[in-house]
Amino acid sequence: MENITLADVEKKAVMNYDFSIKNVAETILKKKKIVVMAGAGMSVSAGIPDFRSPGTGLYSNLEKYDLPSSTSPEDLFTIDYFKDNPMPFTLRAHCLMPGQFLPTPTHHFIKLLSDKGLLSRVYTQNIDTLEVLAGIPADKTVFAHGSFADVHCIGDERHPVALEAWRAQIDKRDPPRCKECDALVKPDIVFFGENLPERYVELRRTDLEEADMLIIVGTSLQVHPFCSLLNETRADIPRVLINLQPSGEHLGLLFDHKDNYRDVFLKGTCDDQVKALCKVLGWTKDLDRLMQEQKKKENDGWKIIVEAQKKKRQTQPK
Ligand code: CNA
Question: Which end of the chain has less Cβ packing within 10 Å, N or C?
């Protein structure tokens, strides 16, 4: 896709070389198949640290997991490491247990894109399930790195485990084991060394080829293969990054480069930037309404995730 050469007139048609937030908002309204790529920065204001922000990210704060000095931050999420030493991940899972965090304005903005018929799909690297709590429809969401919304053992049979039973063990800081085969149990989040979910593999190609705009929020674009999605779109669609700092330049996002005709960097927190977008779009009331509705459900997070797991089990028992 990347190497397709566009004529000057086609390049101009993408954004008319106007990379202002006003033009981003106006462009959004002309689209129907927006793909959002999301990362941990989107959930920081919910109280969940990202990985790589210096000082506040998880990788700067690993001391509570009592890891040997030879351990790298990635080890915490590596399947072979987990098999040998499940305790650090158990402590991490306790900190991240769904239900303690609420979706952010950025999650609600994605819900609005969906409500208004503009969202093709959100591909999220996040595992915190806040997309579910924000009410983004399941068919519009791809949890590219899995999520905490379901739990299986890591034995060959992958026995399903009820979320409540798994949580009871995690709350005791006791690495859960399968009642049927004694294998360790873990949420369906993708560890380093594991394959990405089938749904990601099945939908990715068509979604990206058909996308008419890409919005990338809160990600350092360091994790493969997810980050390469941004080069799987057509060459004539705008790509907008909303982040505290530029990312993805190593993958070809051009921003200030003289050849840029389609990449926009909106610098700042995702929440501030989506609120500013909503203002131009005339969606501020809609965003406020979704946030007010959320407040009424603020204690229901865990229940919603448990119910969703039960419903899923009824339709697909394995
Ligand atoms: P990352 O590598 O930690 O990058 C986060 C990016 O977000 C950085 O570029 C930050 O500058 C930026 N950022 C931080 N706060 C904000 C903010 N408020 N507004 C805008 N930008 C901000 O995380 P990635 O998502 O890029 O890396 C992918 C990993 C992170 C995936 O495997 C995830 O599973 C994993 N992760 C997920 C969560 C979660 O589910 N909430 C939390 C931490 C890590």
Answer: C
- Only one residue has tokens 């101009």, namely 12
Mutational test site, ligand 1, from 43, 45, 51, 101, max ligand atoms within 8 Å of CB: 51
Residue 127 token pair: 């595992």
As a 3-state breakdown, the chain gives helix, strand, coil percent values, each rounded to 5, of 45, 15, 40
Which of 30, 31, 52 lies closest to 41 in space, CA to CA?
52
DSSP element (H, E) containing 189: strand 185-189
My answer on whether omega of the bond before 225 falls inside 30° of 0, hence cis, is yes
Residue among 219, 196, 191, 195 at smallest CA distance from 36:
219
- In angstroms, the CA 93 to CA 271 distance is 25
What is the model's pTM? Answer: 0.95
Tokens 């028992």 belong to residue = 317
220 lines ligand 1 (CB under 6 A): yes
Tokens of 317: 């028992």
Chain segment 194-213, per-residue pLDDT in tens: 899 999 999 999 999 999 99
Q: Give the confidence band of 146 by pLDDT, cuts at 50, 70, 90.
A: very high
228 Cβ below 6 A of ligand 1: no
